[in-house]
Every structure is written in C-alpha cells, then in structure tokens.
Design a protein that fits this description.
Blueprint lengths: L6 H7 L6 H12 L6 H11 L5 H13 L3 E5 L5 E5 L6 E5 L5 E4 L2 H13 L10 E4 L2 H11 L2
C-alpha cells in the first residue's frame, strides 16, 4: 500500500506533525503489501522501534483515517484492517479459512453495477464489494466428506 507522496509531504499536506513514531508507522504501512490490522502492524513496527506502544498504533491509525490518508475495512467479523486511501478503486476476496484478503478489479463488474443502478433509477455514489471465498480444494474436500 505505498503512499503516492513521501511521508513528510503527506503529513504536511494533512496538517500533521511528523513525529518519530508516526514516521515509523507510516513507513511500515507504506511497505505493506497486505491490509494489516493494528496487532499485525504493531508486530511489524516494533521490529523497527520497540518503544512504540499498541496505544500509539491505534491513535495513529484513527488519526490517519480521520485525515483521509487511510481507509478502514472490516471484513466479516474480523479485526479492522487498513490500506492507503490513495488507490484506484478495487474490490476484495476474503478467504474464510485464512482471513487473507486479495484485491481485484473487474471492469465487467463495474459496468454491470452501473447498468443495474441506472435500470433501478439510481446513480452510484460509492460502493464496496467484498466476496467471501474459500480455496477450490476446500470445496472439493467438503464435497467428498458430504459424499457428493
């Protein structure tokens, strides 16, 4: 989830002081290729700076979300996860077995959503699509157990 601007500029543009913990947290977020939750982010951040508390992580995540720098996602009943708000629209597959999140984009799905909204007399203002999945091998294992 790399930020499009460097961290110092991003903070300045949003009226935030660039504190040392904030810099480390934002650097780790920028290097993340997934959607970490606060606990996972804390685990990664403390490798760079063991003095950063989980409370600092939560405060920083909330502040970055309030400022529009991060987006917060809650997939199913799992913990809140975060990603940069500076990205092209995309949707998510959520693996129900592992909790892993896979981003994808489909022009066909986007087109169908527009078509259906118009058909019903609506204009889409915003949307998110979360599809809960399990690996095909898990489906096949379940079918064998069920005797199919």
């Amino acid at each position: 989830m790399p930020f499009t601007k460097d961290i110092a500029t991003l903070c300045k543009d949003h009226g935030l002081r660039l504190t040392s913990p904030r810099k480390v947290i934002m650097q780790v977020l920028s290097e993340s290729e997934d959607h970490p939750d606060a606990i996972e982010l804390h685990r990664r951040v403390t490798k760079a700076d063991p003095g950063i508390s989980i409370a600092t992580i939560y405060r920083t995540l909330n502040l970055l979300q309030e400022k529009g720098i991060l987006e917060k996602h809650t997939f199913g009943d799992g913990p809140a996860r975060f990603e940069s708000a500076e990205h092209e629209h995309h949707d998510h597959f959520i693996d129900t077995e592992t909790g892993d999140v896979t981003e994808f984009r489909s022009d066909e799905i986007e087109r169908l959503q527009q078509e259906i909204a118009l058909k019903h007399g609506f204009e889409i203002v915003s949307h998110k699509l979360e599809i809960y999945v399990r690996p095909l091998n898990a489906v096949r294992r379940q079918a064998k157990r069920d005797g199919s």
